[in-house]
Design goal:
By secondary structure, the protein is mainly alpha-helical. The chain has 3 domains: about 120 residues, Rossmann fold (3-Layer(aba) Sandwich); about 120 residues, Serine Threonine Protein Phosphatase 5, Tetratricopeptide repeat; about 180 residues, Orthogonal Bundle (DNA Cyclobutane Dipyrimidine Photolyase, subunit A, domain 3). Helix content is about 50%, strand content about 5%. It has 22 helices and 5 strands. A 5-stranded parallel beta sheet has the order 3-2-1-4-5, sandwiched between helices. It is globular. The chain starts with a strand and ends with a helix. Bound molecules: flavin-adenine dinucleotide (FAD). The site of flavin-adenine dinucleotide has 27 residues, from helix 10, helix 12, helix 15 and helix 17.
């Protein structure tokens, strides 16, 4: 038996890679990665520079790991739907195996390949802990609310132990004569490497997991929402690119700590987002709550520019915007505050923000990002109710009490005392002067007045939802 193991960018690992392990057990293996222009055309790579960097790190390590074990990663260029069936024939392989994707465009790609290869194309579960779409309500419908989903998940989940990486791999069969292509580097795709983005690859991912288990898991319930503490795992990009399998995280976390349930909840939120997108592929285009269809968002380019560049005058919103473009990551609480601010305070379509986040996040993930944006805008699955509008000042004071998060990302406010750091316009002339802040010059006045913007959104939303 000769199997092509098709790595597809969301499973860049050798540990707990079931399609690989099963292929090794039954014969020859050809590990394949396709440089599909859908992602690797320079213009597409520039649209996701941090994700691409993280992916290339993972790909390089994967290629090196395969070589160390006696095999090698075969790279091919071209559209997957054309290249993969062609290589199956050219390599005289019996089948192609890969992990399933949830996104509608990935499913369409797989449908087109299955149309050509039939049973010679085999998809494995593994991106999620339970196959997406496998949990159903009593009336056999997809869940729309997280709490019952989580309950059903906990009742159904028996998660197998992760598999070890194969110690040795069979060499690539000698008749595989495809010209050798090296794993591209950032520069090859016209990108400048950003040293502030986390290192990708299996080794860095495992180190992050170990550090989190050792230092932070036990404090996670108290520190996960704090913007000023490194209280979360920072595993999101590893999960997204599969440099750690989700069940290896689940197993490690649940084995180490009986207090892990708060962290496990977050993994179940992820399952929920994936399951939701599986059942409702249209969500990448439209709101979950149909009453939000046609919402009169405002195409306000000037305010959009202030939000994206971190110059809204609301320090915590600005810190999030700058963290995003600087290091390709934003703390979850800051994502919620800043997404809510864009949609509700500025009345700018959440889709704009969703796209902007997808461009810069290293962990940018279609299912999760869409769910996060729809939740924050109030139109999503189990969204917070539309009338709950985050107050960026109070959120800042609660989750960044001394202002360390703001000081780091908005250095022009660094010298303000904690009581004004989240509302510099409330500071006395003397306090501003001592901190070197000149509002309207080196830091902007607020782009909108919080109570007025909140009132404007509530009035508009209630009118729209009533009439829809
Ligand atoms: C507007 C918005 C956009 C988002 N976009 C993304 C995205 O593109 N990619 C992404 O991975 N997450 C996204 N999230 C969810 C969350 O913010 C990140 O997963 C989290 O901040 C990653 O940091 P961490 O790994 O340290 O999280 P931890 O707190 O350590 O959580 C561990 C893991 O659980 C999962 N998780 C955590 N929080 C959530 C959540 N609220 N919903 C679903 N899964 C969660 C993630 O896989 C995360 O890595 C978004 C949230 C919002 C509000």
């Amino acid at each position: 038996m000769r199997t092509i193991v098709w790595f597809r960018g969301k499973d860049l690992r050798l540990r707990d890679h079931v399609p690989l392990a099963e292929a090794v057990a039954i014969g020859d293996v050809i590990p394949l990665f396709v440089l599909d222009p859908f992602f690797f055309a320079p213009a597409r790579a520039r649209d996701a520079p941090h994700r691409m960097q993280f992916l290339l790190d993972g790909l390089q390590e994967l290629a090196a790991g395969l070589e160390r074990r006696g095999s090698r990663l075969v790279l091919a260029r071209g559209k997957s739907v054309v290249v993969v069936p062609r290589l199956l024939r050219r390599f005289r392989a019996d089948k192609v195996v890969a992990h399933r994707w949830v996104e509608p465009f990935g499913r369409e790609r797989d449908r087109r390949i299955a149309e050509q290869l039939g049973s010679r194309f085999q998809l494995y579960e593994g991106e999620t802990l339970l196959p997406p779409g496998s949990l159903r309500t009593g009336s056999n419908r997809p869940y729309a609310v997280w709490t019952p989903f989580a309950k059903a998940f906990r009742a159904a989940a028996t998660i197998d132990r992760p598999r070890a990486a194969p110690r040795r791999l069979p060499p690539i069969p000698p008749d595989i004569d495809i010209p050798r292509i090296e794993v591209p580097r950032c520069e090859d795709l016209g990108l400048v490497r950003n040293p502030r983005v986390l290192q990708g690859g299996e080794r860095a991912a495992r180190q992050r997991l170990s550090r989190f288990l050792r230092d932070n898991l036990v404090h996670y319930p108290d520190s996960r929402d704090r913007l000023d503490l490194a209280g979360t795992s920072r595993l999101s990009a590893d999960i997204k690119f599969g440099t750690l399998s989700i069940r290896s995280i689940w197993s490690a976390v649940t084995a180490v700590s009986p207090t892990a349930s708060r962290f496990v909840d977050e993994l179940i939120w992820r399952e929920f987002s994936y399951s939701t997108l599986w059942d409702r592929p249209g969500l990448l285009r439209e709101p979950f709550n149909p009453k939000f269809t046609g919402f009169p968002w405002i195409d306000d380019e000037a305010r959009w520019a202030r939000w994206t560049s971190g110059r809204t005058g609301y320090p915590v919103v600005d810190a999030a915007a700058r963290q995003l473009t600087s290091e390709g990551f934003v703390h979850n609480r800051a994502r919620m505050i800043s997404a809510s601010f864009l949609a509700k305070h500025l009345l700018i379509a959440y889709r704009w923000g969703e796209e902007h986040y997808m461009k810069y996040l290293a962990d940018g993930d279609w299912a999760q990002n869409n769910a996060g944006w729809q939740w924050s805008a109030g139109c999503g699955c189990d969204a917070q109710p539309y009338f709950r509008v985050f107050n960026p000042i109070l959120q800042g004071r609660k989750f960044d009490p001394q202002g360390a998060y703001v000081r780091r990302w908005v250095p022009e406010l660094a010298k303000l005392p904690p009581r004004y750091i989240h509302s510099p316009w409330e500071a006395s002339t003397l306090a501003l002067k001592e901190a070197g802040v000149v509002l309207g010059q080196n830091y902007p006045q607020p782009v909108v007045d919080h109570p007025a913007a909140r009132g404007r959104f509530l009035a508009l939303a209630s009118r729209h939802l009533k009439s829809n």
